[in-house]
Predict the structure.
Amino acid sequence: MNMLNVSVSPHLRSETGTPSIMRDVAFALLPACIFGVYNNGWRAAVIIALCVLTAVLTEFLFEKLLRRPVTVTDWSAVVTGMILAVNLPASVPFWMPVMGAVFAILVVKQLFGGLGQNFMNPALAARCFLLISFTSEMTNFVYDGVAGATPLSALKAGESVDLVQMFLGTHGGCIGETSVLAILAGAGYLLVKKVISIRIPGLYILSTLLFAVVLNLVTGMGMPGWEYLLAQLMGGGLLIGAFFMATDYVTSPVTPMGQVVYALLLGFLTALFRVVGKSAEGVSYAIIISNIVVPLIERATVPAAFGLKRKGGAKA
Amino acid sequence: MNLKTFMRGIHLREEKELAEKSAIRRVFPEGEMVFPLSQHIGAPARPLVAPGDQVRMGQMIAEPAGPISAAICSSVSGKVKAVEPRLTVSGEYKEAVVIENDGLYTPVDGFGEPRDYQSLSREAILSIIRDAGIVGMGGAGFPTAVKLSPENFEQVDFLIINAAECEPYLTSDHRLMLERPDELLGGIRVMLRLLPNARAVIGIEDNKPDAVKLLSEKCSGDPKISVQPLKTKYPQGGERMLIHAVTGRDINASMLPAAAGCVVQNVATAVAVYNAVCRSTPLITRVMTISGDGVSTPCNLEVSIGVSHRQVMEAAGGLKGDPEKLISGGPMMGTALYTLDIPVQKTSASILALLHDPVAANPSTPCIHCGRCVAACPERLVPQMMQVAADHDDFETFEKLHGMECIECGCCTAVCPAHRTLTQSFKYGKASVNRLRREAKAKAGEKA
């Protein structure tokens, strides 16, 4: 007879593991990536490959050097690499995705303790790092060989935009953010597989539009029209940010009420940056700033246990 | 069907088809019988026999040692071999009466005689239940006579019969409902006599439609007893979840069910009450489910309390293959065993043998903060934050996060994709808080 295993109850475990969840996210990002390559050409494919390979290699080398268990098989570094790639313009020099992926994995993820310990979304932190350091390369969107404005910056300049083109994604922008269709295909997969719930992305998108209206009114720009709101919805990184980055488990709250607060904060900041700020886009900054306050939001939104009346949050 | 339920919780593979069709079979023990003096919540019973004494079947061999305690009756006739510590299901050695079974089953006087409960006073019924050694047989082992006599017994308006049997594999209550419905309803009527203003509701998960149908028919003429089908969801049979499902009332860890006007008893306990009061038969046997892919013939057996788990397993044809894990109780809240040489207690609902142990196959990895534990917790807790607190010995935060409300049902742990041992941390956290509270109380006592 075998030696019997003895452990504390329960004696059942989930068949879903961290690797299968991460694999689902990577799979759900594929439509956006494939469309990015179609829309931007071979450079996009090289950038995606560089981001993923560098992210995985950085994690592998760091863990080898520190003699820690190697965790690259959990697919989380792959997801980080893909998210960074879809947030880069296809025209950036090739050293930039490498630098970004090293920053994401080494500085933001591993130096803070590895999987589950990072206080910001590593890929978005890396994107913001690149955006601040190399602003001109990061905001140079070449489409069909011509440098041009993204729909959101056109909108900000008061020009009109083609909504059908925005839905399909055949315009300039970051590799993975342009096609609403491709993003929704991936998001639908994650929702059906119950990897993410609609709570954060749904509220985030709705509140962005709501606050955009409010801020337009407050700043005296008047009531925006349907075209403006649809362009805000489909343009920039809102959809890919809402479904793939704001839902990042590690950097979003676990409490139900905390998720509501977090989504509203995201919506407010995104609208603020887009409407009042100088730049046309603000999803990345909105998400990493909200990431930082997640621990505070969680502490304040601990629910009252079953059979107890709620009296303030736990002052942990 | 009008299904009721509670919020959150999880859906598990039921695995009940292994044993649910197997009729209850009586198994008689051989050789040594072991009766631990502590197989209930409260003070261990006080032994009434000494080595060398001759005892009969049904004889009280240990009496309640305090207001919250329970008697223990011998399930066999024979000679007392020893009163000494023996290994029990919890892994501890506990004081136990050891009796050598003479195989004759010579009963005490009056054993098995019919009795009319309607001619008995409330006090007389309670004293019979107390002397019969009846405790909650669903697992907790709270003395039944105490549970049936809360101070506000006249305000109790619900007697809830816990027939959810929400743990996977277990089918013993299901078989009791199908095979002994009249004993069950008889036990309910006895208990209703103790709770004059209550009506009884039998809460059954809808994965047992035959039991719902049979009992609905049987109690259709009785205005005080009804059947409530419940959604099949774990932990539907948790006391607080069941009370919520049936009555919509919520209680917390510091409240007794009676505070919400409820008394909850499980199926096997109700049958035991009937046997004690109407058939003069104390609690000396119980029905167990022997199941799992590591058992030759999964089945439901009526076994004598005190028999070794090894004999029970042999009665089920023995182990099959090379099981990695043996469990006393269900897979969600049961205790892993490292030996079968331990006695069956009043609360031993089952023995499971599993060829594959999912716990060993899925080591813990870092928490990814996904929130599945929060979505699963029937107690509306935040297991993710509680584990951080408990693992860092930060019991103050653990308490502020309502950690003491945890019912250790295991939902959080069973859904965790990182396979973290959350429930284990909470058992540790709760035990530590209780220890600190006791120490603080003792200190305050010293000063005073």
Remarks:
- Residues 372-447 of chain B form one domain.
- The first strand of chain B starts at residue 25 and ends at 27.
- Chain B touches chain A through 68 residues (CB under 8 Å).
